[in-house]
């Protein structure tokens, strides 16, 4: 790794995952901020130079650009204690990171984005129609996490891994999407364990 720059919007939990991973590993990270509400990741220059998919986060290492939050976390944490070396445990970390992207983020993060940043009054008819299904799917994801954490302190093994970082990012702000953390006591205790990790930094926004 050479000089690292994170292309980010500080309100995004996907970006925060990378900031938190870098902080826990004491890896220096420069940031370049964009306002996604103003379409700043959809300009011709951004699409041509940074990410043809028009989204942040993107981790830049020298002249190479790596979109996708969990790929960027993996790039930073490879070879550290945040990625177990034992084969099953390593795959189990990936399992939770894929769960985060498929079951958790599209529901828990999307409701936060719609309700906190877009505003209920500004939602399209399609978004409004999707609210109940996204709420139910988000609650199912949080319940599954709570059941898992009732029996173990961390998602994989006996210490923090990227699975915890990936899932912490949007879980700790889930109340901004009107999910009630009180319904998930094991998740609430786990959030405190993550916050107590040496090097922990809070989300900026
Ligand atoms: N799967 C991607 C999701 C990236 C994503 O959805 N980024 C959002 C912000 S969290 C974005 O850039 N939205 C702006 C847009 O779509 O124009 C990841 O994990 O990095």
List how many beta strands DSSP finds. 4
Bound molecules: glutathione
Summarize model confidence as the mean pLDDT.
97
Order of helices and strands: EHEHEEHHHHH
Approximate strand percentage: 5-15%
* Sequence of strands across the biggest β-sheet: 2-1-3-4
Number of helices: 7
Largest sheet: 4 strands, mixed
Low-confidence stretches: none
Q: Which structural class matches the secondary elements?
A: alpha+beta
Give the helix proportion (percent range): 40-55%
Q: Could you tell me how far the N terminus lies from the C terminus, measured between alpha carbons in angstroms?
A: 27 Å
What is the 3D form? globular
How large, in whole angstroms, is the Cα Rg? 17 Å
Give the tags.
four-stranded mixed beta sheet; 7 helices
Question: Which secondary structure elements does this structure contain, and how are they paired or packed?
Answer:
Elements: E1 4-8, H1 13-24, E2 30-33, H2 44-49, E3 58-61, E4 64-67, H3 69-77, H4 87-118, H5 125-151, H6 162-171, H7 185-195
Helix pairs in contact: 1-3, 1-6, 4-5, 4-6, 5-7
The chain binds glutathione.
Description of the molecule:
By secondary structure, the chain is of the alpha+beta class. 52% of the residues lie in helices and 8% in strands. A four-stranded mixed beta sheet has the order 2-1-3-4, covered by helices on one side. The mean pLDDT is 97. The structure holds glutathione.
């Amino acid at each position: 790794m050479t000089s690292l720059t994170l292309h980010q919007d500080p309100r995004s939990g996907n970006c925060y995952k990378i900031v938190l991973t870098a902080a826990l590993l004491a890896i220096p990270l420069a940031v370049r901020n964009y306002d996604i509400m103003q379409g700043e990741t959809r300009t011709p220059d951004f699409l041509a130079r940074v990410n043809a998919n028009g989204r942040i986060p993107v981790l830049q290492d020298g002249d190479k650009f790596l979109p996708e939050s969990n790929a960027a976390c993996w790039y930073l944490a490879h070879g550290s204690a945040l990625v177990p070396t034992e084969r099953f445990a390593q795959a189990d970390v990936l399992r939770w990171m894929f769960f985060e992207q498929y079951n958790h983020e599209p529901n828990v993060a999307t409701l936060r984005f719609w309700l906190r940043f877009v505003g209920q009054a500004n939602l399209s008819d399609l978004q409004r129609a999707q609210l109940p299904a996204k709420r139910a799917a988000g609650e199912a994801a949080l319940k599954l996490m709570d059941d898992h954490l009732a029996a173990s302190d961390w998602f994989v093994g006996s210490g923090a891994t990227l699975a915890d970082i990936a899932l912490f990012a949007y879980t700790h702000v889930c109340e901004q999407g009107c999910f009630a953390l009180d319904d998930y006591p094991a998740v609430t205790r786990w959030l405190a364990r993550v916050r107590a990790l040496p090097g922990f930094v809070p989300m900026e926004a």
